[in-house]
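Quick one: structure for this chain?
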Amino acid sequence: ILAKTNTPEFGSGSNTDNRVFGATRNPYNPGRTPGGSSGGSAAALATGMLPLAHGSDTGGSLRNPATWCGVVGFRPTPGLVARESRTLNYTHFSVQGPMGRCVADASLMLSGLAGDDPRDVLAGPCDPAAFINLPPVDLSGLRVVWSTDFGGTAPIDEPIRQTFAAVMNEISPWFDTCDERNPDFATARDVFWTLRCVYYLASHEARVAAHRDILSPNIVSNVVAGQAMTLSDVARAERAWSKLVADFEAFFADVDLLIVPGNAVSPFLIADGIPKSVGGKPMQNYVDASLIRSALTLTGHPVIALPAGLDSVGMPF
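Got it. Here's what it folds into:
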């Protein structure tokens, strides 16, 4: 291990900033954020400081900075990378994963992360060596679908929508089939927010009680929102989550890959902070802008962020 890279406090946020080390900046434009929470890892990879890096991912903390810094970030299937300090036993939420400048590098890093551990109830037997020297894939045989915003469920800025359309127009001939199809994520926003609050209560309630005055507002607001919920709210979210997972499995019955934009907006200016609106829609809380990523967290499927050129403001897409 060479270094500890920068993160927002306790990995909470899509902007890598904290009171100890300050803001990490995007190597493509130092006035803009590299994303978060693994923004330090992504920036270190993009600048060549490190050959490989580790990241964590709850609502996209690994995929978000990989997208905005033009590197590869892979959110594995929950349990593939064991977590001996899992706060909640059975949850798809927080996973650890590899980051690299290319898929081969990220795969090599995964071979060092993957493995079983009896202290993690989601972990199981696996062969880490299977991720070294991956065999080539015949793209021409893949059945691919794409979705820009999950049928209007996820807010997306118009320039990102246009960039994504251009990318899909370029790559669609590579596959056997490539059609637009939207998974049903109508409940994803409320489910994710409720279950995220449960996770934050388990992880940070005592910390907020003791140190509320110095903690990140992101952490405090998540805990406060959770304290206002009832067990009935959580039960409804759990039932909706179960249905969402089942529906997504059915969605993949005749599909190999789903392709979506990596982020809803371009990397925002550090001076401006997290966007208050996306695609003209006001955001009620700081995670609302992440629905294009966090809905996929709920599915339990692996997700990879791959560089696909530049967006309308010249930042990685």
